[in-house]
Structure formats: structure tokens, C-alpha cells
């Protein structure tokens, strides 16, 4: 929250817009997601744009507060619940837009509906990350179908590789070879956080994208996603399973309390 508050202060100072606030949201906790959404619904008149940006990448086999595999829980399920809880607000604020930050890594992903939480298979941190990012593209496709005619659009995005702490679990910075041989090349290819944020901003406000929905963008350009990401039946089945996991009442789009996986200790990310 200290870093978040500092960023909010910087934005207020640069823009002279005092209606910039920082709020706590832990995507590894369904309780936190619900509390955050409830505050937004109560305190904000409109929700014009929702950018689902947060992620954890290739962390150890940790679980969230609710027992979800950490990458699935943070990268996908937390955003799935948050978006659904804010849908009524978005629909009341049309035209509205949702931007889901996926990754080029989704092309190597596979959604295993029989074992989303890696309880049966040997855990593969890379495969788990790719699955979570593929799930976001499938979520985008199904949400777009459900939002037809509402004035709210949703698109998925690979923003490029940003110079952030997202890769802190990959081990590259701890490798002498990687640091001295690949490091200089890597730093030439990655974007600053400011540049990496531009595609998200473009999808959120570009006039030429009005009405464009259910698409996948690589930077500023629309691109065909992986074949599995185009599977409409899989997208619908994943939605149903996700709603069950997070306790979402499908008839009203509201959370049903008391529905979760067995709890496991929360590792801090």
C-alpha cells in the first residue's frame, strides 16, 4: 500500500486531479475481492474502465487463502470474480470497457478442467502460469458473448515484456550466466513500465476500438490467439467451473458465501 499511495500522490501532483485514490485489494483472497468490489459499488458513481492487470509469475507451488493454486487464483480467478461483481456498475456506466492482461505465454497453455488446481498432476510452475493466462483469454471470449448488446466491451492483451519484478521467481537474476550473458540482451528487449502500460491505455480509451469486443491484442495490434483460446465450448465450461469455485450465483451474478476449496496457509507474494 505504501508504493500504491506514493503512485497515487505522484498522479495527483502531475495531473492536479485530486480524485485519484489507492485502495487495498488482495487477489489471493476472495474475501478481499468482495470487500474491494463492495466499496467501489458503494462509493463510486461510475465504473467506466476496468483493467485487470495484476499477476504473479512462476512462483513456487503456493496456494491462496481459499486453497487455489496461486497463479490460477491471482491471475485469473480473482479477476473473474472482481469483474463479475462490478458488471452491473459497468453496464450502468456505458459505454464501458474491460481489459484483461494476458500474455503471449497463453499459446503454450492448456486448461485442464479436471485438475485446474494441480492437485493430481506434478506441479509445473511454467505450465501453471501459461494455463492462467490462457484462462484469461477464454474468459474474455465468454464474457464478450454475455455482454453483447450491453454497451460494455472486453478484450485481452499481451502488453509486451515489462521491466518489473514479475519475473522475480524465474531465477534468471540469480544465474551468473543469465546475468552477464543474457542480461544485456534482455534489458534491450524489455519495456519500461510506462511504455508497457501504453497498450492497456490504448484499449481503454481509443475511439476506433468502440464496439470492438472479444479480441486478443498483441501490443496495439489485434492478433489471432492460440487455437484453444477460440474454443467456445471450453470457454463456457471454464466459466461454469470458475463460478462454482469462487461461489458466484449464476442466476444473479452475486457471490454465494461459504463456497470455496479447502483452506491452505497463505504464502505472501
Automatic annotation (TrEMBL):
<protein>
    <submittedName>
        <fullName>Retinol dehydrogenase 13</fullName>
    </submittedName>
</protein>
<dbReference type="Pfam" id="PF00106">
    <property type="entry name" value="adh_short"/>
</dbReference>
<dbReference type="GO" id="GO:0016491">
    <property type="term" value="F:oxidoreductase activity"/>
</dbReference>
<comment type="similarity">
    <text>Belongs to the short-chain dehydrogenases/reductases (SDR) family.</text>
</comment>
<keyword id="KW-0560">Oxidoreductase</keyword>
<feature type="compositionally biased region" description="Polar residues">
    <location>
        <begin position="257"/>
        <end position="269"/>
    </location>
</feature>
<dbReference type="InterPro" id="IPR036291">
    <property type="entry name" value="NAD(P)-bd_dom_sf"/>
</dbReference>
<feature type="region of interest" description="Disordered">
    <location>
        <begin position="250"/>
        <end position="269"/>
    </location>
</feature>
<keyword id="KW-0521">NADP</keyword>
<dbReference type="InterPro" id="IPR020904">
    <property type="entry name" value="Sc_DH/Rdtase_CS"/>
</dbReference>
<dbReference type="InterPro" id="IPR002347">
    <property type="entry name" value="SDR_fam"/>
</dbReference>
Amino acid at each position: 500500500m505504501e508504493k500504491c499511495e506514493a503512485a497515487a500522490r505522484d498522479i495527483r501532483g502531475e495531473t492536479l486531479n485530486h480524485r485519484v485514490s489507492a485502495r487495498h485489494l488482495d487477489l489471493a483472497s476472495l474475501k478481499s475481492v468482495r470487500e474491494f468490489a463492495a466499496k467501489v459499488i458503494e462509493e463510486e458513481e461510475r465504473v467506466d474502465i476496468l483493467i485487470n492487470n495484476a499477476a504473479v509469475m512462476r512462483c513456487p507451488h503456493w496456494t491462496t487463502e481459499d486453497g487455489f493454486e496461486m497463479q490460477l487464483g491471482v491471475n485469473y480467478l480473482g479477476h473473474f470474480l472482481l469483474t463479475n461483481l462490478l458488471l452491473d456498475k459497468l453496464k450502468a456506466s456505458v459505454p464501458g470497457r474491460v481489459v484483461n492482461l494476458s500474455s503471449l505465454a497463453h499459446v503454450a497453455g492448456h486448461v485442464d478442467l479436471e485438475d485446474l488446481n494441480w492437485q493430481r498432476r506434478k506441479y509445473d510452475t511454467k505450465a501453471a502460469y501459461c494455463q492462467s493466462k490462457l484462462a484469461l483469454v477464454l474468459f474474455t471470449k465468454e464474457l464478450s458473448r454475455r455482454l453483447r448488446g450491453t454497451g460494455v466491451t472486453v478484450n485481452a492483451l499481451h502488453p509486451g515484456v515489462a521491466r518489473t519484478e514479475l519475473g522475480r521467481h524465474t531465477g534468471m537474476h540469480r544465474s551468473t550466466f543469465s546475468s552477464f550473458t543474457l542480461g544485456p540482451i534482455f534489458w534491450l528487449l524489455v519495456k519500461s513500465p510506462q511504455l508497457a502500460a501504453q497498450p492497456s491505455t490504448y484499449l481503454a480509451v481509443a475511439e476506433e476500438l468502440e464496439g470492438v469486443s472479444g479480441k486478443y491484442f498483441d501490443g496495439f495490434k489485434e492478433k489471432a490467439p492460440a487455437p484453444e483460446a477460440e474454443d467456445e465450448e471450453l470457454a463456457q465450461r471454464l466459466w461454469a467451473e470458475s463460478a462454482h469455485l469462487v461461489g458466484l450465483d449464476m442466476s444473479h451474478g452475486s457471490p454465494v458465501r461459504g463456497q470455496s476449496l479447502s483452506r491452505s496457509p497463505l504464502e505472501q507474494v
